[in-house]
Design goal:
Pfam families (chains A, B): M20_dimer, Peptidase_M20
Largest interface: A-B, 101 and 101 residues
Oligomer: homodimer
Keywords (chains A, B): Hydrolase, Metal-binding, Protease
Strand order of the largest sheet of chain A: 1-2-6-3-7-17
Number of helices of chain A: 13
Largest sheet of chain A: 6 strands, mixed
Radius of gyration of chain A: 23 Å
Number of strands of chain A: 18
Number of domains of chain A: 2
CATH superfamily of the largest domain in chain A: Zn peptidases
Shape of chain A: globular
Strand content of chain A: 15-25%
Low-confidence stretches of chain A: none
CATH class of the largest domain in chain A: Alpha Beta
GO molecular function, one term (chains A, B): peptidase activity
GO biological process, one term (chains A, B): proteolysis
Distance between the termini of chain A: 20 Å
Mean pLDDT of chain A: 95
Protein name (chains A, B): Dipeptidase
CATH architecture of the largest domain in chain A: 3-Layer(aba) Sandwich
Structural class of chain A: alpha+beta
């Protein structure tokens, strides 16, 4: 549509500057000291949605961080699209590895560097600007609703209750999310699903106090050593996960689909060079794309215990800790898997120590098959603005709330992601390419148009 | 000697208050921000030695923290005792586990609670007060020298050079150290030696940046998992250390000596209750006392990597770290052992990661056999004030400088320790029993007297 193109060309710089302002708010949901920033960020999102043309915009408090809701209902006979995104971000640590402040966005070599640039402020904001484009050019082909939450990075703890309590408000025909990546602008791809997540924290306690490692070392189990042995035992020599029953519910992907997924461009030498590793690691019998897409994994996200400061301290600590998460694939259920992992850790704990394992958060895996109207509308939109149809892929990340949308609202979710794997999500120097930001704003209106057409 | 007893009874409270003042100085040698406190502490030690009656007292700067030297040379024909101690302390972390401030000493149930109460301010200060007792009662039976350093807790990094450069100044017939423990006031014991130490830090690097554990998890080696596997592999199922050659230089202790050491009172049930553990851990084929006395050990003193803050972060970190130390027994040499451990860690590192291992500090093990004049003088002193001869034991801790004293000064070291294993050395709530402090001050003059007699 020429009108869209013209409007976007005219407001290009403003779109970008508004995003930079949003990125300046340190909305770290995991840290209680950022509670005021979370509220400030929710208010900013509300203001931007109002300016963009939403007729009803509201902040809903939850027991955690607030949810921002907005809508523009044009015609009850049109299909309704619910855009979901999140304004919260991951903690920025380790701070010393950032080249510029995580909350002082800079544009360098065509990339926006800031925490949340891609995940997910930059991506949900494309929807706000695509919406503005359609409203201001009087060409909104659907009814649209926005649900922008503040707890995605901590497992959408209170969104489930919110969705259950507001089923009518949120009623929609499809959920649209931009919180994933594509292969590249040259090789656009479209996720047919995301993995689920099970996240736990483990505390291993040995002696009841820190001990002198000379006086007691060798005679009392060191909880760090025991935790290391427990972690080491979780993968066998083929890097299969050893927890009994871990793979029981995994729906094997048919050979034909594996072959289709295998067509995604992948260059092992480039992949290794980008990561700076000599050798790749992973479950025997699967390719890299399969390991990150169709297989469940178990990763240690953090470990700590004993003396971790400058210099040396000869302590045999009382406790050691780890944060461990599993990515899940259909049909693994996160609650069942969390219980399985916790029970296993407690079972393998030797009598020398006590192990306390507690769940952090989780979410079920989710799929939107290629043959659905929802997937096809997205695929067509990408084909229109990129000049080539997207490659269907399986996303490795997790968006815990998608399974709930399906059960509570009865509609499928489309993962229309414009990030790149190299965007350093959850890492220092997170970035989002300016070109991807604009490409997203350009593509999104076509999704709405094609979806409205396909639904007629 | 009644004169000693009377003097000490008269000045009892002052002795204790002076120690409390010394404990208020946070002389943490491992932390650069405490450099001014280290200087302040050295000056306080100098002032106390001067007041106690030393005729020459001097602070010697080193490339690290300063050394305090003092002497009282009465008669060139008398033997000379060099008292060694240290005014630096271990870092107080984890602070939240202290019941009172680590540098705000309190006396509760007859115990002095403070970092350094036992290790080693409380113990070296017994010598200052014992010296004062002998000087003020005109009964010093030996020439006495003090060498109180500020880097024991970080491996006496610069004391070696200092000793080599001041051999004449430090010339002595015996070195006397109170920096170890005895079994109890009811069952006094005397260390015939201390273990050596080898301390290294390991850095495992996987990918060149922190990664999103969903996008990359399962396809790239996680350095925490690899470090855990490396640590797990260092002990076999019998808790023997698996590093090839680790035990090569261990001088097996003869059955007769093991039998003698086995006479030390030990109650496994009490030991477990005190530590709050259900089961003990250790090298198969050895008793608890042997595991902490005559056998070398390997302990992880600290581990960290990834996200360790509040909440959850789904990161696959770039790096993981550990601090690992070994306790050594005769005839293991710390430099050789450090190299052996570092080489082994590099050898077992898989191609997925790079491993950097660097030495922190170390020291050789040391023995002063029962049949030496030095041991006998100490044994007799304890027998006099405790009413029973001490049980000879092997100390589990390390005093890295002792081997150097023997090689540079040509004299043996006596470990006249008055601490208890339960003193929480290197842990929160370090304490020193007031009774042990006074018992040490009472006993030390007898060591000097008996040593002078035995040397005649």
């Amino acid at each position: 549509m020429q009108a869209w193109k013209d409007y976007q060309a005219q407001h290009k710089d403003r779109f970008l500057n508004e995003l930079l302002d949003l990125l300046r708010i340190p909305s770290v949901s995991a840290r209680s000291e950022h509670k005021p920033d979370m509220i400030r960020c929710a208010e900013a999102v509300k203001a931007r949605l109002t300016e963009a043309g939403a007729t009803k915009v509201e902040i809903y408090p939850t027991e955690g961080h607030p949810v921002v809701y907005a809508e523009q209902i044009t015609d009850a006979s049109l299909p309704t699209v619910l855009v979901y995104g999140h304004y919260d971000v991951q903690p920025p640590d380790p701070l010393e590895l950032w080249h510029s402040g995580p909350f002082e966005p800079v544009i360098k070599d065509g990339k926006i560097f800031a925490r949340g640039a891609c995940d997910d402020k930059g991506q949900f904001y494309m929807h706000v600007k695509a919406f503005e484009t359609m409203v201001r050019t009087n060409s909104l082909p659907v009814n649209i609703k926005f649900l922008i939450e503040g707890e995605e990075e901590i497992g959408s703890q209170h969104l489930g209750n919110f969705v259950q309590a507001h089923k009518d408000l949120l009623k929609a025909d499809v959920v649209l999310i931009s919180d994933t990546a594509m292969l590249s602008l040259e090789n656009p791809s479209l996720d047919i699903g995301v993995r689920g997540l099970s996240y736990i924290e483990v505390e291993v306690t040995g002696p009841n106090r820190d001990l002198h490692s000379g006086v007691y070392g060798g005679a009392v189990a060191n909880p760090i050593t025991i935790l290391a042995k427990m972690i080491a035992s979780l993968h066998d020599e083929n890097n299969h996960i050893t927890i009994p029953g871990f793979y029981n519910d995994v729906l094997e992907v048919p050979a034909a689909e594996r072959a289709e997924l295998g067509k995604a461009p992948y260059n092992e030498a480039e992949y290794k060079t980008d990561l700076g590793v000599e050798a790749l690691w992973g479950e025997k019998g699967y390719t890299t794309n399969e390991r990150t897409g169709i297989r469940p994994t178990l990763e240690v996200n953090g470990i700590w215990g004993g003396y971790t400061g400058e210099g040396a301290k000869t302590v045999l600590p009382s406790k050691a800790f780890a944060k461990i998460s599993c990515r899940l694939v259909p049909n693994q259920q996160h609650e069942k898997m969390t219980e399985l992992v916790i029970n296993h850790l407690q079972k393998i704990a030797p009598a020398y120590v006590t192990v306390k394992a507690t769940p952090h958060h989780g979410g079920d895996p989710y799929l939107t098959p290629i043959n659905t109207v929802e997937f096809q509308a997205a695929s067509k939109a990408i084909a229109t603005t990129f000049g080539k149809a997207p490659i269907p892929v399986r996303g490795g990340g997790s968006i815990p709330i998608t399974a709930l949308f399906e059960s509570a609202l009865g509609c499928k979710t489309v993962f229309l992601g414009f990030g790149l794997d190299s965007d350093n999500l959850h890492s220092p120097n997170e970035k989002f390419d300016v070109a991807n930001f604009y490409k997203g704003i350009e593509t999104i209106p076509y999704f709405h148009q094609y979806y409205a057409e396909l639904k007629q």
